[in-house]
Known about the structure:
Largest sheet: 4 strands, parallel
CATH superfamily: FAD/NAD(P)-binding domain
Number of strands: 7
CATH architecture: 3-Layer(bba) Sandwich
Strand content: 25-35%
Structural class: alpha/beta
Distance between the termini: 41 Å
Number of helices: 3
Amino acid sequence: MIILGAGLVAAETASLLHQARHGIALLSRSNTPGRTALGDLVAQRVADLHRTHVSTYFARQPVAVRLSDAHIGLTLDDGTRLDADLVIAANGTAPSHCSPG
């Protein structure tokens, strides 16, 4: 499976699917996902944890998509080709209410 995004929702999804013994590729445009929300130190630690459990493709983005009856293929901006039977888009959330102030 390929997960597009590496924020909190994507990270939790990757963790749950990894625990269920699925192969996971986590793809993020950011070199250190979560830096804005978590700060440099925590975001780097989370990224390091991702790297030990799933295939990570940080600072990358898809540039081409290939579809077949059973698979989805992505070509990344560095030429890497990923194939999966499922792609999950977990590319962020928006607050339902404005923050106070």
